[in-house]
Write a structure and sequence with these properties.
- By secondary structure, the protein is an alpha/beta fold.
- The chain has one domain (about 1-200): Vaccinia Virus protein VP39 (Rossmann fold, 3-Layer(aba) Sandwich), CATH 3.40.50.150.
- The chain is about 35% helix and about 25% strand.
- The chain is built from eight helices and seven strands.
- It has a seven-stranded mixed beta sheet with strand order 3-2-1-4-5-7-6.
- The longest helix has 23 residues, at about 10-30.
- It is globular.
Length: about 200
Amino acid sequence: MTFTVDVTACEAVRHRRSILAAKIDEAAARREMPSILSLASGHLREAELSIALKEGRVGRLLAVDQDAESLATVEGYCRSVSRAIEPRQATVRQILAGRTDLGRFDLVYAAGLYDYLDARVAARLTRVLFDHLKEGGRLLIPNFLWGVREEAYMEVFMDWHLLYRTPDEIQGFAQEIAPAAIRNTRYTQDDAGTIGYLEIERI
């Protein structure tokens, strides 16, 4: 158990939680009462670390996931962290098909979703999510990079199969977005070089 929770990938996921919480706080510093979308939110653990959420400086955080049990955990954060948090059940397929009325946002992120998406679906979803941004809004997409040393252990013993990518492949997620609509694109990595982060800002 100790080895499992301390593998490189698990450490990176915990670090990702801190990065996402910082992005929520950054959005609240940039915009008054921002609207935020977390797609495939899972348990939304980053909400526990966001100062802006706890201080009531976020107007809306829509947490979308297909799993009802995960959303039940998110519902608890509505009471313990912020009433701005709004859980909603929906699938990626519904979002791609335009069958959800999500609204527009100052920040959109998908914590661990892209690690499981085919490259073509990832590019299409990136375009759809970008279309949900307000003017000056930002889209953040993390994805695991090649080189996780416990990859074989994760797949055989943890049944954890990820789609690892190169920095160029991660930056390629933006290929379906019209360049004229993009103000800025920024690629970064966590300190261990385990997860790459693509951030795209809308004009």
